[in-house]
Amino acid sequence: MIKKILVASDGSDVAKNAAEFAMDLASQTKSDIYGMYVADAIEYLAGMNLAEMYLPMHEKIIKKLEEEGRSIVKDLEEIAAKRGVNFTGKVIKGEKPVKEIIDAARKQGADLIVVGSHGKHASIIDVAMGEVPLKLLSADLPCPVTVVKPK
After folding, report:
1. The domain spanning residue 82 has which CATH number?
2. What's the chain's Rg over C-alpha atoms?
3. pLDDT higher than 60, residue 125
4. For residues 132 and 39, what is the distance between their CA atoms, to the nearest angstrom?
5. DSSP result, the chain
6. Half-sphere exposure of 120 (CA within 13 A, CB side)
């Protein structure tokens, strides 16, 4: 029986679809939701232009990512509230989102992990599935994972 669902989100449209799916499932199964956002500076840097990269911005980047993460976790909380689902969430600083998601699933006692098939920074190489869900599917997980496709 599913009692706790972990939803990892980067705020992308596909991640929002995954969150909606998880919240609907939680509502039907009376499960709790643990929502998370990983503030990944490496992933952020990959999307920056060269002018931005040369500025000494590490702390600014982390601060920006944490602010973005708080907003995303708040959005997840609002979705949960509309469905009457018990929600807790957290922004986690880390450079390995897959490791952070697995660690959180273990720590939270998650019965299911839900992620979107593609994130904000998916590349042309990630046609079928993004890097994070692909790595999750091949990892040693403490519970099943559901990957939600775009609508």
Report:
1. 3.40.50.620
2. 15
3. no
4. 14
5. ---EEEEE--S-HHHHHHHHHHHHHHHHHT-EEEEEEEE-HHHHHHTS-HHHHTS--HHHHHHHHHHHHHHHHHHHHHHHHHTT--EEEEEEE-S-HHHHHHHHHHHHT-SEEEEESS-TT--TT-SSS-HHHHHHHTS--SS-EEEEPP-
6. 20
Q: Nearest to residue 2, comparing CAs of 108, 117, 137, 81?
A: 108
C-alpha distances out from residue 50 to 45, 54, 61, 110, Å:
9, 7, 14, 40
Q: Is the pLDDT of residue 47 over 70?
A: no
Contact 92, 37 (CB under 8 A): yes
112-116 vs 145-148, strand pairing mode:
parallel
The pLDDT, as a whole number, for residue 50 is 47
Average pLDDT score, the chain = 87
Number of domains in the chain: 1
Question: In terms of residue numbers, what domain contains 16?
Answer: 4-148
pLDDT at site 51: 45
Q: Check residue 94 and give its pLDDT.
A: 83
Closest among 25, 9, 15 to 104, alpha carbons compared: 9
Confidence (pLDDT) at 18: 97
